[in-house]
Protein 1
Amino acid sequence: MAARAIWKGVLRVGETEVPVKLYSAVEDRKVHFRLLDAKDEKPVEQRMVHPATGEPVEKDEVRKGWEAEPGVFVVLGDEDLAQAQPEASRAVELTRFVPAEAIDPPWYERPYWLGPDGDDAREPYLALAAALEREGRQGVARWTMRKKRYAGALHARNGRLMLVTLRNAGEVISAADLPAPRGRQLAERELAMARQLVEALEDDFRPEDYRDEHRERVAELVAAKAAGKAPKVRKMRPKKPSDDLDRALAASLEKARGGGRQRRAG
Amino acid sequence: MPAEAAAPRPFWSGTISFGLVAVPVDLYPANRSGRVALRMVAPDGTPLSRRYFSHRGEEVSWEEIVRGAEVDDGRFVTVSDEELDVLAPEKSRDIDLTRFVDAAAIDPLYFQRAYYLTPAGDTTKAYRLLAAVMEDTGRAGIATFVMRGKEYLVAIFAENGILRAATLRFADEVRSAQDVGLPEPETPPKKAVDRLARAIRAAARPALDERELEDEDSRRLLAVAREKLEAGEDVLAPPVLPDGGEESEGAEVVDLMEVIKRNLRGRATPPAPARRPARRTERPGRKKGSARPKSAAKPAASGTQRAGRRAVPDLAELSKEELYERARRADVPGRSGMSKQELIRALKRSA
């Protein structure tokens, strides 16, 4: 079944406008808990209370405060917050196009699929996806959605567009600003063995090979209790590595060469 | 707080195993929140506390609160902390790299959060070896591992001789184009593609410029707030109350980058005393003024009150995502609009 679009916007690339719909590309699978009053197992509500009196403060009395210096607050009213809000707009401005590999993973935050909004959008949509793929580039986008400014990377894959939001400037610590650990020069022999080991364990990234067992166990527990059954418990076992580098490498290599093949065949 | 408490504890400590080779590492977040933090205050400027109330309007203490999952018919199934603790994966100290993939081939769709791994053993040899080979071959190691009672899928990358980790979404947490219902792609007219390709080339740049990622919302909000401050408008210094005067602002009291640098240089953190919240640490001579003097009146109760509960310490060390998740479990209202600091505060209040 088709998902519901969460927002509509217009991509702007040069003279071309591409009306798009935005769909979340992530699916929430978590088991959600609410806090209940133990007495009647009904949900509790959170309220703001004044610490001097312990009395609840009504919602329309609650203000936002910016702590200018310790203990000093600038109180911001609705008008102030409204003044700080970005102007509403449907435009997704593509300011520049960088090589497909130019953005480091730590910048990526949340992915959205884009679909063409309306029949007329189909052709420019497909053309933009094809052009991005052909040029091997991704677009850097800025837009306003739900009263917030966003930055994102516009990708194309298999004729479709995806927009991944990016973290703000300063929110990623760059490896380029960090010193690499130092030590005595690595032995050629060990480098060669390590390399062979990596090569022996080379494979494709297949996300479907991994499951969040913990989440599954929590869901099972809830389902079992809902059905009035006693929950069953499954556990995981840890493993143990060794620390003689040279020997460990040789042994691992041996193992990887023997075992890797079988695993892949199976 | 004693001076030797300067360095925060790593987010996680463990071992990367690579075949039978063990690489002991500490893990620190590579992402930090930079958003301007606002607090909920009373009209007189006093920061407010969060409390729970029953549907009958009575305050409910934390001891009288249970956790429940809503089942289909609007009924709740309660689950105790003890039951959840049993389910938590056994603490494994391992990131077992059993698969190496093309680092560039991992779809950005999977990336969740980033971390740095710093060498933690007596020698950096195995660390450097793994980093050198992974960087050289352009490979990333894939594994699942357990951190703070939860299971994560993770990719380990090497860059500039440094190991980095990215937590990945599980396959069932992402939607494909088909799942979303995007139309089947067709071949667009060549002319249209050419025109867009020209527009792309006209705006082509070799790299991402961080300035394009400026947090415009925070800039605007700060501008409004500073203007009011200068005009002396709505600037309030509420009396410090034993319960109200906690927590300073500032996204990062501890300079995370300095900590990571120090660890990479091999001046590893001395093992920190167990279970001490790391965030409030102040190094002498650093960050003057930005950290509020810790109110001695901060009730010690927050620790004892919650003994036996799991939503306990070190909130500041959690990622925003994890804080949000906790806030969701705690049903904190307004959580989606909260900054990291606000989430921390809200969770503390809720405890």
Note: Chain B touches chain A through 197 residues (CB under 8 Å).
Protein 2
Amino acid sequence: MDLASAKMIGAGLACIALVGAGIGIGNVFSSLISAVARNPAAQAQVQPFAFLGFALAEATGLFGLAIAFLILFVF
Amino acid sequence: MALELHPLEQFKVEPLIPLHIAGLDVSYTNAALFMTVAVVLITMLLVLGTRRGALVPSRWQSVAEMSYEFVADMVETNAGHGAEPYFPFIFTLFMFVLSANLLGLIPYSFTVTSQIIVTFALAAAVFIGVTIIGFIKHGAHFLRLFVPEGVPIVLLLLLVPIEILSYFIRPFTLSIRLFANMLAGHTMLAIFGGFAASVGLLALLPVALDVAIYALEVLVAALQAYVFAILTCLYLRDALHMH
């Protein structure tokens, strides 16, 4: 296997990390929706936590995406 | 498909005013320029915005007051009592990261927070500072932070190393989170921009996508500054109150 194709495969594999980010972000917002649907008065209290959770979940996926970019464009 | 893409070129640090002192390269770079711009903008917003001190605030004054109140509220709820002396530091941190992130979104500008050394320096300052505060407040008792209460001794053998590891990994996760967000977002914008330049008439598609990603990036820029500040508050709470 030559280096160019190995890089492509490696970058593709690194992007699998985004599966986790997708599941995490979906989970955060589905929980937010069900929480607000049960108790609309709590929206102001829980929304900052939801966005904090969204940012943390998204960041973990982006670690993988950053690795993919590094493989493709740096090495 | 042979695309000439160089999406990482935008992160290149270039010296604007070359300067060498005692064998050290201390050139004034584009990164330093945008840090200066960020600091000047924050200072202008806060100094000029609050100069009048009107009871009915102007737009500038409202922005300055809102950002102050936002961070003050965050420190109070997340860092607990006794964190008031550290509010100026967290406010500075938040405003610097926020304005560096937002400045980076201007086309052809430079994103300071996409350099890992910048974010790591910020995170390391937080980590070292918080650890010192913890030892000053609690002395050797601060080490109890690594020992969860009410846990059987057998489990402690497993939990203590995990706690220690999760403590020392903090500066790395804190810095890489911000850095990776900025790097990935800006690289993505550049890649789709490169697509638009190479596909001719179909260019509308990647440009539309770029607009959507840009909107997400504005959200991410603000959110990551918030996350950076709020995690600093939480680490500070650990040091001040031990759980």
Note: Chain B has one domain: 25-241.
